[in-house]
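tool=predict chain=A
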Amino acid sequence: MRKIRVLVKKEVMDILRDRKTLIMMVVVPILLYPLLLLGITLGVGFFMQSQSEKVHTAGFETISDAALDELKELYEKNKEEIGTNLDFIRGTDADAWLEVAESDNGYDVKIHYISTEQDSRYACEAMEELLDIYQEKLLSENLKEKGLPQEFLHPVKVESIDQASESESFGMDIGGSIGMMLIVTILMGAMYPAIDATAGEKERGTLETLLTLPVSNFELIMSKYLSVALFSCVTAIISLISLGGSALILMSSVTEEVGSQIPQFSALLPAIPVILMTMVAVALFITAVCMCFCVFARSFKEANNYITPVLLVIMFASMAAMIPTLRLDYQTALIPVVNVSLMIKQILAQQFSLSLAGVTIGVNAGYSILIVWVLSRIYNSEDILFSDGFRGFRLFQKRSDIKKGTVPGAGDAAVIVTATFLLLIYVGTAATVHLGFWGAALQQLMILVIPVAAVWYMKSDVKELFSLHVPRASGVPGGLLLYLGTYCIMITISVFLVKIMPESSVELAESYEMLTEQPLFFVLLVLALMPAVGEELLFRGFVMGSIRHRHGAWWAIFVSALVFGIFHMSLLKLLPTAMLGACFAVIVWRTGTIYIGMFLHFLNNTISFLTIKYPEKAVELVPFLMKETLSLQEILCLLLAGIVLGGAGWIILKRRSTNAAEE
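tool=predict ok
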């Protein structure tokens, strides 16, 4: 800790020398919120006043003078209710004009206006309200002539009573914007210190000197992270104080009617410590993310390029609270940044939940620890730390300049995965919409072709990169046992996830409905065999092979499994799919061949789709696979079976790899 304290002091002094950091950390939060709130208040007030004073013209062409005079008189009586100043003129040279034609049942009235012009819209709305009042007047007169009561036309009176207070509704409306403003301010406060502590160190040429000090890489990266996190947390606290102070000043100057709609400070007081802890947690997370991207850059300019996508992603995530139907629950609480924005909205709406707040804080803190661990691994790799950025990517070099047998780097793997993901979203989604089942075949073909084309372009050794070695019989039992053990544990996890995410399970089931309409041969070919080949070549071949060559097997297993889980784009399937990917990666590592993983992947897909296509038979043969819920005894049995089978498979695979190494 003494070494870390010394390093933190050094990092803080370096960051404080940069005036941009002080401006983004202190000046912007202090000035931003008062100016925003004051500007919005003055702007809205000025706009409302200008609209109330402005006179809009309403034109009338085919209408008698008597009817026009009657409308004018009716307008003068109800002017305050309509709320818009109207000037009645003859002709169509007006903001909006009215056309009247007689019909068998009375009159057909058309209001002509221009939706792209604000004055025209206001005039149209005012004329609609006036005509509604006029119509009610005529109905009342007709009912009176017939001797009928007013209730004749409205036998059922409907009244909607909002159980939420005005302040709760107001808090729900503005909560999304407040959360986004706070998160973006924290991001801006963390961005420049993160760049300075990573890329700035490289650009100044002092990183090499730091690495020669008698400190470990962990102590070095922790000091940098704590320094940047300190500034980020200070920005979060200052932002919260500035926003709260601005809100209090605004509340003291509004009228009593408007003030009743604003959440009272006393009602939010118990939640302030939780909001503060949440802001600190998201600041730690954003700091870790920024540093993790900036560490790859070699200059301040290059780091700005790397951090821009992060800025956009975090901004979009912070805007999630603006979606009216999205609420904080035990599913959305697992998504960093999104959960913070949703929690702030519900706190302002006086719907505070301490348990969900705890999950939100824990999730952001947990992700921060994970990313810091990744960051420490990066600092242990000189190949990454002193890389040439995009210039080191083989895919961005001319093919004639690439040497034969070149092994792709981690950056190349990231580019290929990203390109495949984007193609699946744009091209694959369009193909599925227009071609249905066969669009899925096109998706799987893209997954197969892209890594193969990349390997050809980089002149890599296909056999070594993809582990295309003939499998030995001794590796099959170990791989099969490890898969069965993983599968048992996956079932228990899936049952638990279905309980907390029932909507996701329904959507997932609906997405597979088309399978029941296709012949079994095509289902197994397109959705079992093709993914088993294509996904294994992409994830356990290209991605794992690229990372394993430079960063070791365990790192390659973790990254390939995580990307494999994310690639399936389902929160419900993320963890089980990642576990399955890790299982196949371990098998490839220990056996030295990808074919066993391909076979097990095909077997896994076949079992899944057979249970979907033939649910009645599946219930008879494998009832535990079709249960939506499992008893505690069944869960314990599956977990025990998974541990025993998986452990046995691991021992066999480990012994087999040891024997192969000796041979």
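The longest strand covers residues 96-103. Strands lie at 55-60, 85-90, 96-103, 106-112.
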